[in-house]
Design goal:
Elements: H1 22-36, H2 72-84
């Protein structure tokens, strides 16, 4: 099977301490490329917004868990650099999953 026959779409680590700053996005993408042993991925997905939101069954907002957020422009710029470098193939679209109506 050739690489072209496989659709690879890893995502940024889904951990509570994972941030969407440029360095973390690039490091995560490079780690995915190493693990998959491929020079590019077809889509690189960011699941969670970089802001506090009650999740995983929690439905009560806790202001003590707020933290400074990474600007979306920084995250998008990092994805753009990875696309320009040929590490992400399909970069014309991006989205956010797991976002509540209040966000």
């Amino acid at each position: 099977m050739t690489r072209q026959a496989v659709y690879a779409r890893p995502s940024l680590l889904d951990r509570a301490d994972c941030r969407l700053d440029a360095a973390s996005i690039k490091m995560s993408c490079d780690a995915s490329l190493r693990r998959l042993q491929t020079p590019y991925v077809d889509l690189f997905q960011l699941h969670w917004p970089d802001r506090y939101c009650p999740g995983f069954g929690a439905n009560v907002y806790d202001p003590k868990k707020e933290h400074e957020t990474i600007p979306i422009k920084e995250s998008v710029a990092a994805l753009g650099e990875l696309i320009a470098a040929g590490k992400i193939r399909w970069g014309l679209m991006y989205g956010a999953r797991h976002v509540t109506g209040c966000q």
